[in-house]
TrEMBL record, chain A:
Residues 1-101 form the GST N-terminal domain. It is an enzyme of class 2 (transferase). Transmembrane segments: none annotated. It is found in: Cytoplasm. This is glutathione transferase. It catalyses: RX + glutathione = an S-substituted glutathione + a halide anion + H(+). GO terms for molecular function: glutathione transferase activity. Belongs to the GST superfamily. Theta family. Keywords: Cytoplasm, Transferase. Residues 107-248 form the GST C-terminal domain. Homodimer. GO terms for cellular component: cytoplasm.
C-alpha cells in the first residue's frame, strides 16, 4: 500500500511536506484536503484521518468553531500508521527514505541547530504568518467586512520583529540556516513566509538579504517544484469571490472575532 | 569541560532539562539565570542566547537554545537509554509528533494560566482578571481533551510502556497550572494516574526537587519582579 499524504497546499506545513517528498522522489498518494472550499461551501468538514474524525466526532459542528482548521493537515498515513505534525512527518520521511544528509545533518551540533530552528519556528513564523491570510482574505470572506487596518499592522509589526530575530540568530551571513546547504530549517521557514506574500504583504521587498536567501532556497528545491507548491496560495485572492453560506458565517463568527483580539 | 545549563526552575522547559540531565547522570554546571530579576534580559546572557530565553546550553564554544533541541542534543551526546527517544522509526515519530504539537497546545495554554494568575498581577500590581482566567482555563480544558484522546489514550505513557521525552516535556508544562492554583489533575483520574507513573519513572525525589520553587505558592505570590522585567512583561502580555 502506498504512502498517503493528506495535504492542502494552502497550508504552509503541507507545502513543506509536499516539496520535501517530491524533491526526494518519495512515492506518495496525494490525498487532497480542501480546507477552505469545503468549509466555505458548507460541505462535510473533511477529517483528514480517523484520529481527527474521532476527535471531531458528532460534535463537529460545535467544535468546528473552536478547532483551528489549519491544524488538521498535513497528515501522513503509512499502512495503519498515521502521523500528524509536519516536523514529525518530515523527520519520519527523512529517516525512512534515507534522504541526503544536508536535510537533517548527522553531525551532532549541526543537527541540534536544525532542531533549534524547528522548535523556535512554532512560536514565531508559524504562529504569526498565517494571521495575514485570516486578516486579509478569510475574515472579510466570512464576515463580509474588512478587518480593521490596525490589526493588519499589528501582525506585520510582529512578523517584522520575528524576521529580525531570524536574520540575527538563524540566517546571519550564511547562504542557508545551516551554512552552505539547504536543510529542513530553510524549507519550513520559506513556506511559512510565502503566506504573507500570497495575500499581498511583500515582506521580501525591502529585505535584500532575506530575498537572496529565498532565491537560493527556491533554486535548491527547484523553481518548478517551488512554483507548483505555491500556485494556490499565490492565487488565493480567487477565494474572495466565493459565496459563503450564511449559516457557516454565523458558526465561524465567534472564532474569527477572537482572532481579531 | 563540563556542559553548562542556564536554567531557572520556575520555567517549565528548564525543569525538563534539569530532570533529564540529573536522571541520566549527565554532569553539568547549573548556571542560575534568575528570571524575576530579569537576568535573562541582560547583555551578558544575550551572548549565550541572543533570544534571551532560558533554558540555554553551552558546551565549550557551542551554545544552543530551545529546550527540545537541548534535550535531543543531550540524549545523543550522552547516549541516554533508548526509551527516552526510541530508535524505532514509528515510536520516534510519535515522540516528535508530541514535541511538535505541544508548543501551541499544552505549553501555550499552561503558560497563559500562569501569566494570567501569577505573573500579570505581579507585573501590574493588580489582582488577576477572573474572566481572563476562565478563558485560559477553558482553552486548557479543551487541550487536555485532545491530550488524553490523541496522545495518552489508554497507554501507561505517551509512547507505550515506558517514559519518553514526550511525557517529560508534558508533565513539567502541566505542573505550571498546578503551581498557579489550578489543579488540572483533580477531576481527571486517568491524567492523575499518568502523572504518578511519570513521577515514579523519573524518581519522586528528583521530581520534587525540580518543582520545589514553583510549587511554593506563598513565595510565588510575593515575588519581587525587577522593574525591567515588569516593563518587558507588560509589553509582551498585552493585558
Amino acid at each position: 500500500m502506498a504512502l498517503e499524504l493528506y495535504l492542502d497546499l494552502i497550508s504552509p506545513p503541507c507545502r513543506a511536506v509536499y516539496i520535501f517528498a517530491k524533491k526526494n522522489n518519495i512515492c506518495f498518494e496525494f490525498k487532497p484536503v480542501e480546507l477552505f472550499k469545503d468549509s466555505i461551501l458548507g460541505r462535510k468538514i473533511v477529517a483528514a484521518s480517523l484520529m481527527e474524525q474521532a476527535i471531531l466526532g458528532q460534535q463537529h459542528t460545535e467544535e468546528f468553531a473552536k478547532v483551528n482548521i489549519l491544524k488538521k493537515v498535513p497528515v501522513l498515513k503509512d499502512g495503519v500508521f498515521t502521523l500528524a505534525e509536519s516536523t514529525a512527518i518530515l523527520l519520519y520521511l527523512s529517516r525512512k527514505y534515507n534522504t541526503p544528509d544536508h536535510w537533517y545533518s548527522s553531525d551532532l551540533q549541526k543537527r541540534a541547530r536544525v532542531d533549534e530552528y524547528l522548535s523556535w519556528h512554532h512560536n514565531s513564523f508559524r504562529r504569526i504568518a498565517p494571521k495575514t491570510l485570516w486578516i486579509k482574505v478569510l475574515i472579510p470572506l466570512f464576515t463580509g467586512q474588512a478587518a480593521p487596518p490596525e490589526k493588519l499592522q499589528e501582525v506585520i509589526d510582529e512578523l517584522a520583529a520575528s524576521l529580525v530575530q531570524f536574520e540575527e540568530k538563524f540566517l546571519q551571513d550564511k547562504p542557508f540556516i545551516m551554512g552552505s546547504e539547504i536543510s529542513l530549517a530553510d524549507l519550513m521557514a520559506v513556506v511559512e513566509l510565502m503566506q504573507p506574500v500570497g495575500v499581498g504583504c511583500h515582506i521580501f521587498a525591502d529585505r535584500p538579504k532575506l530575498a537572496a536567501w529565498r532565491s537560493r532556497v527556491e533554486e535548491a528545491v527547484g523553481k518548478e517544484l517551488f512554483q507548483e507548491a505555491h500556485e494556490q496560495i499565490l492565487n488565493i485572492k480567487e477565494l474572495s469571490s466565493i459565496e459563503v453560506e450564511p449559516k457557516l458565517k454565523e458558526l465561524l463568527a465567534p472564532t474569527l472575532m477572537k482572532m481579531l483580539k | 569541560m563540563v556542559v553548562e545549563l542556564f536554567l531557572d526552575l520556575l520555567s517549565q522547559p528548564c525543569r525538563a532539562l534539569f530532570i533529564f540531565a540529573k536522571k541520566n547522570n549527565i554532569p553539568f554546571e547549573f548556571k542560575h539565570v534568575e528570571l524575576i530579576k530579569g537576568q535573562h534580559l541582560s547583555e551578558e546572557f544575550g551572548k549565550v542566547n541572543v533570544l534571551k530565553k532560558v533554558p540555554a546550553l553551552k558546551d565549550g564554544t557551542f551554545t544552543l537554545a530551545e529546550s527540545i533541541a537541548i534535550l535531543l542534543y543531550l540524549s545523543r551526546k550522552f547516549n541516554t537509554p533508548d526509551h527516552w527517544y526510541p530508535s524505532d522509526l514509528r515510536k520516534r515519530a510519535r515522540v516528535d509528533e508530541y514535541l511538535s504539537w505541544q508548543h501551541t497546545a499544552i505549553r501555550e495554554k499552561g503558560c497563559r494560566i500562569f501569566f494570567t494568575k501569577v505573573l500579570m498581577p505581579l507585573a501590574v500590581g493588580q489582582p488577576f482578571s477572573p474572566d481572563k482566567l476562565e478563558e485560559a482555563v477553558k482553552e486548557m480544558n479543551f487541550t487536555l481533551v485532545q491530550f488524553e484522546e490523541k496522545f495518552l489514550q489508554d497507554k501507561p505513557f505517551i509512547v507505550g510502556s515506558e517514559i519518553s521525552l514526550a511525557d517529560l516535556v508534558a508533565i513539567v508544562e502541566l505542573m505550571q497550572p498546578v503551581a498557579s492554583g489550578c489543579d488540572i489533575f483533580a477531576d481527571r483520574p486517568k491524567l492523575a494516574a499518568w502523572r504518578s507513573r511519570v513521577e515514579e519513572a523519573v524518581g519522586k525525589e528528583l521530581f520534587q526537587e525540580a518543582h520545589k520553587q514553583v510549587l511554593n505558592a506563598k513565595s510565588l505570590g510575593s515575588m519581587q519582579l525587577s522593574s525591567e522585567l515588569k516593563e518587558h512583561l507588560k509589553q509582551i502580555l498585552k493585558p
